[in-house]
Write a structure and sequence with these properties.
Blueprint lengths: L4 H40 L16 E6 L5 E5 L5 E2 L5 H9 L9 E3 L2 H10 L11 E3 H9 L4 H11 L5 H18 L19 E2 L1 H11 L3 H7 L3 E7 L5 E7 L4 H4 L3 E9 L3 E10 L2 E10 L2 H17 L1
Antiparallel strand pairs: 1-2, 1-11, 3-6, 4-5, 7-8, 9-10, 10-11
Helix pairs in contact: 2-5, 2-6, 3-5, 4-5, 4-8, 5-6
Length: 312
Amino acid sequence: MRRTAVQDDAIGAFTLITAIRGARLRRAAAAVVTTGAVLTTGALTAAPAQAVTKPTITAKGGFVMNNGTGKSLYTKKADTRLSTGSTTKIMTAKVVLSQSHLNLDSKVTIQKAYSDYIVRNNASSAHLIVGDKVTVRQLLYGLMLPSGCDAAYALADKFGSGSSRSARVKSFLSKMNSTARSLGLTNTHFDSFDGIGSGNNYSTPRDLTKLASNALKNSTFRSVVKTKSTKQKVTTKSGGYRYMNWSNTNPLLSGYSGTIGVKTGSGPEAKYCLVFAATRNGKTVIGTVLASSSVANRTADAKKLLNYGFAV
């Protein structure tokens, strides 16, 4: 049968439509394949992680390590001997807490010699009152929070050996230095119980960090150095009581999340020092800055090093 012109046109139109639809389907399929290839390539080729920039600090020396592994994370003159200021008191506390059969609730009577020492040296003070009876635990708070040199003197006098105060202090200093040797702190020496030495009181950022790491193994030390402030009831000479209010000189406890300590220090030679530690997501970073140029820069240096320690 012969097709009419109309039938031929209809068949031609149908064929054209079918061809167009086929082309569209092929292009769509190709687009899907291409997109899939792009997605697959993207999944396999992740963007490279950006390197963490090593911070610049104003302090003469700095050191940071992972407290869990002992791995060094940052060094700047980490083994250069520098004056330590009141970061010395970390060792004072360490020696006290290392005493065998230590009774933290035993009482120490505050002597005039301790307050005279504060006045004579214009030293930082826990404002201990002559004649008051203060426990060893309370003296540790007075030592580490307001950085009381009177509390340091009282502890050295209590835990040194000898028949005179000077002999007991000398004995206590010997214990500080023997403890330093036992911990492998080869660039550390103490000639004072509080950092007010005679030119032979020094350590390094690495040594002080190692000392603090060891001290933090003691639960009492950990409790003391993470305390922002405390109100302590002490017995007066007359048998009554008074309250001592002490605030921690470490600004990181309020200014850096996760901070667990440790100790500030300052002085004409030491400038501004800080031994610091913080824990985040199960990782503890610990470090030291020595001889920073101001209180503000000391704090900023420590924060930079903590941030870096958690990032690497």
